Amino acid sequence: MLLSSQSINGAIVVADDVPANRELLQELLTAEGFTVTPVPDGAAALEAIGAKPPDLVLSDVMMPRLNGFEVCAKIKSNPETYFIPVVLVTALSDKQDRLQGIKSGADDFLTRPVDRTELLARVRSLIKLKQRTDELERAESVLFALARSIEGKDPYTHGHCERLSHRAGALGERLRLSTAEVIALRRAGIVHDIGKVAVPDAVLLKPGRLTPEERIIMQEHPVVGERICRPLKSFQLVLPVIRHHHEKRDGSGYPDGLRGEAIPITARIMQIVDIYDALTTERPYKKAFSRDEALKTMAEEIAKGWWDPQVFAEFKKLIKSEKADARSRAAGAAG
Predict the structure, then answer these.
(1) Does the residue 141 lie in any domain?
(2) In terms of pTM, does the model score above 0.90?
(3) Are 81 and 57 in contact (CB under 8 A)?
(4) Active-site positions?
(5) How many whole angstroms from its chain centre is CA 137?
């Protein structure tokens, strides 16, 4: 449903050290149905944002304690507040000041004296964008909750999604993937098996070997998962991971029988962390492998041509670093 301009409202923090300026902005915005929190400086703005994140921040540039550039930079460097739009309001028209504002992450600028029509148009536009972002975040949260509910059916997979999310992201960083790809890997760690929602519990939770018919049902879950997540544009880099994390380099995987480099690198990363987690987790039909046993088994599978040897080599370094970190924490606790 599209939002009309009349229905756009929200909470706005107005930061300005000049009382008359704060009062003017507050009067213009409250008259249009916005809830305004006026603050006298940059530090107070951050305190207000921390207490209750607004839908938008209007900040003067020249303020005591923290100036507008500094306030904006802090908002945009915090994952919890990154998507809050920031408009810098200033009498400055110098190009260098505009560039500094852009570098600090400002979403827009207003020049004094503030024109009422321009102010309301920009505020409504940015808050509408923020509301769309919030809607996407809620949709993602629903998918994450659904994925965790599937995991929760099986006590043997407790924590599986979080472990894959963490390790896949860490491995993506070690392999120098882009920030967007690393974020996609972290998301995919949670939702990679979401298609199992379509798998009957009798098949999903079966402790023994699956029949050929049951295996066909199980092998549909990557396709179903991709279909569930496809409507979210923010998940476009997640989709290849969901669909292809059960492919094998020799073409014997599913659902598409991809070979070698045709398997997306993000999916190859998820394969490695998924298999390691499965091997090191106790299941009804097997005990949990030790770290060394799991890596040995995976090396044997790489020799068969199943997984990417370069990704595996970097993964072993990641596991080694995790082991060293664990020892360091244990030594610190003992001390």
Answers:
(1) no
(2) no
(3) no
(4) 196
(5) 9
